[in-house]
Amino acid sequence: MSHSPRIPTVLSCTMLVAALGAGATACGGPDGHPLSAKPYDAAGQIAFNGPVGSKKADPDKPLEVTAQGEDGRITDVTATDALGRYVAGELSADGARWRSTGPLAAGAQYTVRVSTEDEEGAPGRKVMNFETEVPPKKKRLGVTFGPEAGTYGVGQPVIASLDAAVKGKEARATVERALKVRSVPAVEGAWYWVDDKTLHYRPKEYWPAHATISVSSNLAGIKVADKLWGGESKPLKFTTGDRVEAVTDAGSHWMTVYRNGKEINSIPVTTGKPGYSTRNGVKVVLGKEYSVRMTSASIGASDFYDKQVYYATRVTDSGEYVHAAPWSTGSQGVANTSHGCTGMSTGNAAWFYENVRQGDLVKVVNSYGEDMPAFGNGLGDWNMSWTNWRKGSALLSGTKEGPTAADAARLRPQV
């Protein structure tokens, strides 16, 4: 006949609690230790390679916690900095050693919490604090986000400008992991390395109308490359307005303007004549100027002109605008006669000027001009396919189309 040796213990415990009252704590676990026992100080049971006293740790060196003696083992170790960033680490199967596998941040305050147990299973605890060394200012990588705070069109990308060049996939991946973009509503998006010092972030599709986008960096103190550490950066928050899109058909010489998918105006226009054909593709409004002087010298035109134009909405760095062109009203809706800009009557140009904002979309189709480049002449980001855009990310390059579960947790903007 067999029975569990634990039954009498449980029964006697129940009877004892009933006899002593709800506040009694006379019962213990199977190993004889009180169930409510406070963890003992594990200082004598572990060794830590961190700095002593007021000294600071070298962030290049890994942390290591080891169990001392044969009467206990390490059960858990957590290391976090003052910003709540965890240090990755590995605990050996026998609980004899824990070693950090992730980098430490420079100039950071850390708390290391070690849990142990002795040979009888009693829990121990030790908490240790230390700071890491601060790198020289010349070794810190600063990040500036754009655009400035405000309200923009749904085509406005986020721009991260670095004050030092970052090369190599590992270093770039470190930077990307630290740059956070969150939107409400949430959308899928990714960073693209335009060059060694510039990244653009855009969603797979345009931003939602009336979204709030928050951008920040957790790069401070993180090692990016040899002798280069992340510095502080100012976060950014901006919003989007209505989804405004202007589609210019250079073949029919008309522009149709949509707000949130609904047509709100149709305007006769003239675009670039042969030799100066307007670029095809999606452009993002860069800014608006009430008055701009335009000359043939500014674009290297062979035929001379020098005009003061009004209600000028800029769409490229090289000087392509949507603007008033009262001298060509007879050609608007009929023929293309400009040097690359989109011209319209003064009244229509004033209306367009008042109804678009920076970040809105201006698309040209059916022109004989070149395609708008993704980079180098304003904001042509939307002319690149999402598949190719992902290839410009140090984290997503080479992965399958569409985000994985890991991508979603790490990269997709969250509410």
The oligomeric state is single chain
* CATH topology call of the largest domain: L,D-transpeptidase catalytic domain-like
Mean pLDDT: 87
Could you name the CATH homologous superfamily of the largest domain?
L,D-transpeptidase catalytic domain-like
Widest beta sheet: strand line-up = 22-21-20-28-23
Can you characterise this structure?
With 415 residues, the protein is mostly beta strands. The chain folds into three domains: 40-131, Immunoglobulin-like, CATH 2.60.40; 137-241 and 395-410, Immunoglobulin-like (Sandwich), CATH 2.60.40.3710; 244-384, L,D-transpeptidase catalytic domain-like. It has helices at residues 6-20, 169-178, 296-299, 346-355, 386-391, 405-410, and strands spanning 40-41, 46-48, 64-67, 72-81, 89-91, 97-100, 109-118, 123-131, 140-141, 143-146, 151-152, 158-162, 179-184, 189-195, 198-203, 212-217, 223-225, 228-230, 236-240, 244-249, 254-259, 262-268, 281-284, 287-295, 306-314, 321-324, 342-344, 361-365. A hairpin with a 5-residue loop joins strand 5 (89-91) and strand 6 (97-100). The radius of gyration is 32 Å and the shape is elongated. The two termini are 61 Å apart. Mean pLDDT is 87; it is low at 1-33 and 402-415.
